[in-house]
């Protein structure tokens, strides 16, 4: 029997608390997220329990969906739906690691550029983008959006 993710258990207990408190926003958001986690567990050839890291990835994906939906609704002039999506995204953000600040992100990207330069011996340039991004993403560990990280790395290499 595999160990159940502690983060998944936290989501379940928070769902129970939201149901008792009659908090419809949190209840609906956590139900959808737990369903997404369940879908990820049964995807593939056999059922398996997700680790905390995998659960975090699912939560981050769900939160990003909410951000994108809110943006689309706002552009379409549907402010009520945009506000709902933003509120759901904020609920999910509680479970994600704190995002890196711009300064922390720049320092992390600079370190990745330096590491790649030391390893390859070549001057950093656009050709090293893949290597630098791989190192930077490993160092960020889900604490920075890929688009933000990519923009900082491009500015350093370009």
Jot down its keywords.
0% strand; Hypothetical Protein Yqey, Chain: A, domain1; 2 domains; mainly alpha; globular; 158 residues
From the 3D coordinates, which CATH architecture of the largest domain would you assign?
Orthogonal Bundle
Distance between the termini: 50 Å
List unreliable stretches of 5+ residues.
none
Tell me, what is the CATH class of the largest domain?
Answer: Mainly Alpha
> Which structural category do the helix and sheet elements fall into?
mainly alpha
Please state roughly what percent of the residues sit in beta strands, choosing from under 5%, 5-15%, 15-25%, 25-35%, 35-45% or over 45%. Answer: under 5%
Number of strands: 0
Number of helices: 7
Multimeric status of the protein: single chain
Relevant CATH superfamily of the largest domain? Uncharacterised protein YqeY/AIM41, N-terminal domain
Model description:
With 158 residues, this protein is mainly alpha-helical. The chain has two domains: 6-93, Hypothetical Protein Yqey, Chain: A, domain1 (Orthogonal Bundle), CATH 1.10.1510.10; 102-157. Helices cover 74% and strands 0% of the residues. It contains seven helices and no strands. It has helices at 6-21, 24-42, 52-75, 79-93, 102-120, 129-140, 146-157. Helix 5 packs across helix 7 and helix 6 (129-140) crosses helix 7. The longest helix is centred in the middle third of the chain and has 24 residues, at 52-75. It is globular, with a radius of gyration of 19 Å. The N and C termini lie far apart (50 Å).
